[in-house]
Amino acid sequence: MKTIDQLVTELKLNPQQSLVVKNYFEDLVVELLESLKQDNLQNFEETINSIRKS
Q1: Fewer CB atoms < 10 Å away: N or C end of the chain?
Q2: What is the value of pTM for the model shown?
Q3: For residues 7 and 21, is the Cβ–Cβ distance under 8 A?
Q4: Is residue 17 within 8 Å of residue 7, measured between CB atoms?
């Protein structure tokens, strides 16, 4: 897997393009992590509720 810097170099992006690409990927990662966080919270809540009902 390539780093963002390797990708920027390979694509010969200028500094402005590089910044846009980095920001885009950072936003995607944050969005993915937020989604995983919500999924985990929901799973924990469902498990806790299931245990309480038992």
Answers
A1: N
A2: 0.71
A3: yes
A4: no
4 near 21, Cβ under 8 Å?
A: yes
17-26 pLDDT, tens digit per residue, is 999 999 999 9
pLDDT tens-digit series, residues 21-40:
999 999 999 999 999 999 99
Mean pLDDT score across all residues of the chain = 95
CA gap 27, 22 in Å, rounded: 9
Joined together, the tokens standing for residue 11 give 């694509």
CA–CA gap between residue 41 and residue 54 (Å, rounded):
20
